[in-house]
Amino acid sequence: MKYQHKKTEKATLLSVRAIAAQVILQVLDQGKSLSTLLPEVQSQVKPQDLPLLQEITFGICRVLPRLENIIKKLLDKPLKGKTRIVHCLLLVGLYQLLYMRVPAHAAVDEVVNATKSLKSDSFRGLVNGVLRRFLREQEDILAVVDKHWQTLHPEWFVNKLKKAYPNWREIIEANNQKPPMWLRVNQQQSNTETYRALLEEQGISAFECDNPHALRLAQPLSVTKLPNFEQGAVTVQDLNAQWSALLLEPQNDELILDACAAPGGKTTHILEMAPQAKVIALDVEAHRLKRVEENLARLHQQATVVCGDATTPEKWLAEIGLSGQLFDRILLDAPCSATGVIRRHPDIKWLRQATDIAQLVTLQGQILKALWAKLKPNGILLYATCSVLPDENDQQIQRFLAETSDAELMPLPFERTESAVGVQFLPQEYGGDGFYYAKLRKCSA
């Protein structure tokens, strides 16, 4: 036990800037996501410093190419190998100087001091010199770096957007913004307008929209400040993600599958709309199902939570005693590139590779085929992704319809062109994230 105590004590000595540099290093060089890394380091950070850590790490991922270009102007040769942690520390310093309201001298001092706890003390002078040089020459350096519009996105992704959308620049600009915070009002407890009035009483401004369950907050805030959050009155969920349960139209007493259910926002929405439905929440990652169970508990709801592979439904159906059972409705929120939620998860830009897309398209097709076999005649399957890439969306559904004689495309309640297959939402500054939906009915024989 003594050893563990010492280890914890040592961990707390790391400054927020040092931890931020370590996190960024693991994102860039090891392909780990911020949503995995930040919970792991939470215990090393004082609760009041967590927003700072999040702001720095998410912010760096959002504007990474700009910061990298600045570093190229400031260093004679790149920092590689074991010195990559120093490179990441410079990213932390530059992000603070450019984007945060931290006094310049304090920002530089904090980052320079972080070299010691990162065992990079010999680079103290270099870090100090580079950041102070940037402050002196900032105007000239930025004039060169910012001469041309920067997408702040990887080239392969920009090329895909150009090919698919005439308004590709608008998508990129929306991706580069911080996302709005959307709430889903639990209609079992109160209606949307009543909850908005309750927020206003607490001095919290919120706006309604065309989604009847959604409210957009004027400013993001901690869920602890939301009235009756712990009692299940609201859930934090993006506007366009909220269409899933509404389009699925769940009914009481139906057997419904929420495939790829974690973290549980869609599962709980289904149960808010149909409290007597028999819902199975499926996900292939056991650790992510904990979030589903937490959300169900907060909302006092019941669902069968299953860890299993959506490509082999018979296997996990047998394990829960439902072998041979068919579903009335299936929500397939398919594994995808997540290119529609980049503004919420800016590390996606640097974690996703062009080669991932074809593999994801194949997997989506396999899941669609496997789950379609588990749908009742006249049953509904709602296909959803948080992607903006046609390969994963309308092209996937067009191919499925061509290969599946008993599949019929259902209309959706949105304006669209005659030839459109499903509906594609694109990220918008005050709107929702990028999302795609297609609603399919299984024709009876």
From TrEMBL:
Domain of life: Bacteria
Active site: C386 (nucleophile)
Reactions accelerated catalytically: cytidine(967) in 16S rRNA + S-adenosyl-L-methionine = 5-methylcytidine(967) in 16S rRNA + S-adenosyl-L-homocysteine + H(+)
Listed GO biological process terms: regulation of DNA-templated transcription; rRNA base methylation
Enzyme class: transferase
Its EC number(s): 2.1.1.176
Keyword Transferase annotated: yes
Annotated signal sequence range: none
Keywords, alphabetical: Cytoplasm, Methyltransferase, RNA-binding, rRNA processing, S-adenosyl-L-methionine, Transferase
Subcellular localization: Cytoplasm
Molecular function in Gene Ontology: RNA binding; rRNA (cytosine-C5-)-methyltransferase activity
Domain SAM-dependent MTase RsmB/NOP-type: 171-443
InterPro entries on file: MeTrfase_RsmB-F_NOP2_cat, MeTrfase_RsmB-F_NOP2_dom, NusB-like_sf, NusB_RsmB_TIM44, RCMT, rRNA_ssu_MeTfrase_B, RsmB-like_ferredoxin, RsmB-like_N
Gene Ontology CC annotation, any one: cytosol
Binding site for S-adenosyl-L-methionine: C260, A261, A262, P263, G264, G265, K266, D283, D309, D333
Function: Specifically methylates the cytosine at position 967 (m5C967) of 16S rRNA.
Family indicated by similarity: Belongs to the class I-like SAM-binding methyltransferase superfamily. RsmB/NOP family.
PANTHER family: NOL1_NOP2_SUN FAMILY PROTEIN _ ANTITERMINATION NUSB DOMAIN-CONTAINING PROTEIN, NOP2 YEAST -RELATED NOL1/NOP2/FMU SUN DOMAIN-CONTAINING
Name of the protein in question: Ribosomal RNA small subunit methyltransferase B
Organism expressing this protein natively: Haemophilus pittmaniae
